[in-house]
Amino acid sequence: MGLFNILKKNKKARDKSYIKSLLDVANIDGKLDENELSQIVKIAKKFNITLEEVNEIRDNLDEIKFIPPSGYCAKVKLLEDLVKIMMSDKSIDESEIKFCKDFAYKLNIAPQMVDDLIQTLNS
To answer: What is the mean pLDDT of each run of 10 residues along the chain (123 residues)?
Structure first.
């Protein structure tokens, strides 16, 4: 397998991991709301991931390994998208906020950023 194919495969795995993370936060409250799924599909299109692929990811969440974004800006963008998904069903649950803050910590971002994003996105 050539270097280009390896890089392409790694990018696809990273993109699927990104979408998996969004699906994880959407499923925290036990249900995937239509607005949440719509937002996830919209974000997935930016990664050239189809609705069918989103559904495949959703059906195989446990099989997809988390691959963190490499740069700080990409990490903040993922966190922002997580918060957008969390807020898209118009109901913010404490478990969703905890998930996002734990996720921020995993990305080496101050958990306070979640509160800041919620406040900014509510404005």
So the answer is: 59 93 91 90 96 95 92 96 90 89 96 94 83
111, 101 contact by CB (below 8 A): yes
Q: Provide the whole-model pTM.
A: 0.88
Task: Report all structural domains of the chain as residue ranges with CATH numbers, in order of start.
Answer: 3-122 (1.10.3680)
